[in-house]
């Protein structure tokens, strides 16, 4: 699969181009998430950051670095993990073009943040992006149906490891964090952590979360997969 062609085609897709018209501005206190930034620009920036971070240069533990290299080269439904990771980094916010209808009322999913006149939020963009927009963006791509479902799942949960997740665990060790995160994200917790790392990489509001994710990627136990099953007794 020529992932570069897929990425280029998506960036010129009419639905993806609509992200140029969605401009976000959001803060936590005096720290920014988005600063009057079109979602198209944020998405292509996140793709660029993902390319850079896939080098693994933020991983200094030799064993963790080896495992990270193995992880990104493995195939998921016939596609390299690193290629899927790049794609997800590009389309993770595609749901921000969605609108909704209540009887005769039609409105954008982009709404003012309660209590603020100069900030916006996009509630539900993760879920509705995965359910409505991703399948349209991938319609004419060579991905299998299983690959598409995998991509939809990661996009749907891409905000799980944002600030609220880490803010309740500030005193936890890396080992404690690992025990707590593996049950979530449908087992795709490495994908979720990496996407959030790139998504919030330049956001000053995510400085602490980014540090915790770097700690996690430097822990070899992160890469030990977990299988759930029903015991016989």
Detail the topology: elements first, then pairings:
Elements lengths: L2 H9 L2 H4 L5 E6 L2 E8 H15 L8 H12 L1 E2 L2 E2 H11 L7 E4 L2 E4 L2 E2 L7 E2 L3 H13 L7 H12 L6 H5 L6 H8 L7 H11 L7 H11 L16
Helix pairs in contact: 1-5, 3-5, 3-10, 6-7, 10-11
Secondary structure category = alpha+beta
User: Strands of the largest sheet, in order across it?
Assistant: 1-2
Number of separate strands: 8
Q: What string, H for helix and E for strand, traces the elements in order?
A: HHEEHHEEHEEEEHHHHHH
**Percent of residues in β-strands:** 5-15%
Question: Rg, please?
Answer: 18 Å
Largest sheet: 2 strands, antiparallel
Textual characterization of the structure:
With 233 residues, this protein is an alpha+beta fold. 48% of the residues lie in helices and 13% in strands. The chain has eleven helices and eight strands. The protein has helices at residues 3-11, 14-17, 39-53, 62-73, 81-91, 125-137, 145-156, 163-167, 174-181, 189-199, 207-217; strands spanning 23-28, 31-38, 75-76, 79-80, 99-102, 105-108, 111-112, 120-121. The strands form four sheets. It has a two-stranded antiparallel ribbon. A two-stranded antiparallel sheet has the order 3-4. Strands 5-6 form a two-stranded antiparallel ribbon. A hairpin with a 2-residue loop joins strand 1 (23-28) and strand 2 (31-38). Helix 6 (125-137) runs antiparallel to helix 7 (145-156). The longest helix has 15 residues, at 39-53. It is globular and about 55 Å long. The N and C termini lie far apart (45 Å). The model has no long low-confidence stretch (mean pLDDT 92).
């Amino acid at each position: 699969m020529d992932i570069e062609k897929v990425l280029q085609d998506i960036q010129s897709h009419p639905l993806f181009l609509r992200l140029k018209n969605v401009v976000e501005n959001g803060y936590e206190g005096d720290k920014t998430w988005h600063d009057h930034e079109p979602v198209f620009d944020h998405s292509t920036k996140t793709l660029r950051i993902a390319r850079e971070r896939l080098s693994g240069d933020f991983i200094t533990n030799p064993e963790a670095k080896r495992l990270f290299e193995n992880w990104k080269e493995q195939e998921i439904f016939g596609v390299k993990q690193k290629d899927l990771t790049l794609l997800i980094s590009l389309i993770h916010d595609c749901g921000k073009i969605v609108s909704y209808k209540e009887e005769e009322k039609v409105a954008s999913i982009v709404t003012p943040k309660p209590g603020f006149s100069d900030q916006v939020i996009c509630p539900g963009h993760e879920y509705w992006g995965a359910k409505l927009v991703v399948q349209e963006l991938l319609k004419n791509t060579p991905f299998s149906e299983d690959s598409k479902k995998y991509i939809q799942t990661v996009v749907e949960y891409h905000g799980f490891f944002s600030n609220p997740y880490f803010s309740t665990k500030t005193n936890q060790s890396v080992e404690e964090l690992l025990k707590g995160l593996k049950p979530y994200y449908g087992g795709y917790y490495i994908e979720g952590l990496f996407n959030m790392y790139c998504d919030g990489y330049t956001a000053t509001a995510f400085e602490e979360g980014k540090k915790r994710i770097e700690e996690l990627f430097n822990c070899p136990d992160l890469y030990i997969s977990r299988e759930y099953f029903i015991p016989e007794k």
